[in-house]
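From the pipeline queue, job 12 of 40. The input is one protein chain; the requested action is below.

Action: predict structure.
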Amino acid sequence: MALADGSVLVVEVLGGRLTRVRPDGVKELVAQTGGGPNGAALGPDRRCYVCNNGGVPLVELDGGLRPDPDPSAWTAGSIQRVDLATGAVETLYAGSEYGFSAPNDLVFDGHGGFWFTDHGKSWERVRERGGLYYAKADGSRLELAIAGVESPNGVGLSADGSDLYVAETFTGHVLRFEVVAPGKLRQPEAQAFFAPPGALLARAGPGLFLDSLAVDGAGHICVGTLGKGGILVIAPDGSGSQHIPFPDRLVTNICFGGADLRTAYITLSETGRLIAVDWPRPGLPLIGQ
């Protein structure tokens, strides 16, 4: 996430830490979160909220390191809160208590709460179905809003907060949900069991797997893509899309910053780089930005 002083906060999933990147490229450790910090957002209290997926236990298989195929070796994730001034980390919600598995990304609304995705975990022949949750920043409320979402990853809100967008990694679907009250979504009507639980706004296309997203000031949904690395820019009504490639197969996230929010900060995770590019439209201001 981009901060007002021109620095950018990034999570390092494999490093288990939250890092600040200064405008001159200097990196500073903000906090050691442990586990697998996967997504972060600045809350209305100016503290950083982190989706921690719990980490991926690795074992030697087939001559290399692979995720442990034993489900009992995996740990449920959590929602953490980080004091940016001191680096203190606290667990706000634990998945072992509330039933979620691998929190992935989050977005704050204007009511003191945030939506987050539970991506689920995968083993050799098993993949957990994920869900979409709503939680209050003060730790007073967490509830499941929609279950049975396939590999939900990036999440974002429209400018007026009436639409919630979710990117599914493996299906390549971008879904739209109608927000009817703080933490409440319009439930889908009865439909075929294989249909997605939200309105299908867009499909990514062959070779594109979806990661985190951001919404720009004109309402376009901008999603990081894996495989064919880049940013998929989807029209607000889903009528069309454009894929902007970048030189990395794992383009995992985008956020907007700068004085006019026209600078896009993009994470190239295969090569471990954070880049800044000019964007044709300003980004949508976020809570806490």
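Job complete. The chain has a mean pLDDT of 93.
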